[in-house]
């Protein structure tokens, strides 16, 4: 997932942790906007006790699997543009309380199909809708969204994939390869190499985010969701090598150390402690 290491992930997590994540978000830019919207939806529905989204609770797993009953992706396959009747149905549906989640979340994956009339119909529900309703809009260029609607949203601009901290992302992939291989001592060797390279807290956070993303995908693979992308084979290998309980435990462990990156803790101390705990999993 290209979005995994985008700085926007931190903003979403921190806002969700404070309870200040806006009910109206506009994801723009050339990154993976739909993945970002899904991530925000998971943060809104997360039932975990720590960082949101935790990626392991039933709500998070349903959101990332695309089966959460209160997270609706808005499409209209029968028309080039979203019909105004569909938008009016969404407006009416928003007043029906969530089935099982804390929020009723509507994801609009392509705002170019929203006509001016559609957006004007949405404007009132975004402004005055029930407190549990949330609206997540995706548009490469935010100018396709009317200023009146755009001004009601918090815009989160995604970075192109080429600007992601590539080396840290690759370290996260390598960590997962070592976990999949199950050879004792290799994780410690990796952490020592990273310490010698003077990996900073931001780089460490990016590495942990990438590893958690792959492990979450491995967990979903065990539930029958076929992985895609360049790391698909690794994801399958992780799913075969580690039990559900071990994957969930590892995700929680990485999440704990990811949280340490937000504080004034030296990256070398985190790397050393993490190596000890991960070696026990192998």
SSE order and pairing:
Elements lengths: L7 H11 L5 E6 L3 H13 L12 H8 L5 E3 L10 H10 L10 E5 L7 H13 L4 E6 L8 H4 L3 E5 L7 H16 L4 H11 L4 H22 L9 H10 L2 H17 L6 H15 L1
Parallel strand pairs: 1-4, 1-5, 2-3, 3-4
Helix pairs in contact: 1-2, 2-3, 4-5, 7-8, 7-9, 7-10, 8-12, 9-10, 9-11, 11-12
Please provide a written account of the structure.
This protein is α/β, with parallel strands linked by helices. It has 12 helices and 5 strands. It has a 5-stranded parallel beta sheet, with helices on one face. Helix 5 (116-128) links the parallel strand 3 (104-108) and strand 4. Helix 1 (8-18) runs parallel beside helix 2 (33-45), helix 2 runs antiparallel to helix 3 (58-65) and helix 4 packs parallel to helix 5. The two termini are 25 Å apart.
Name the descriptors.
five-stranded parallel sheet, elongated, single chain, 12 helices, alpha/beta
- State the helical fraction: 40-55%
Tally of strands: 5
Molecular shape: elongated
Order of SSEs, N→C?
HEHHEHEHEHEHHHHHH
Parts with pLDDT < 50 across at least 5 consecutive residues: none
Largest sheet: 5 strands, parallel
The span between the termini is 25 Å
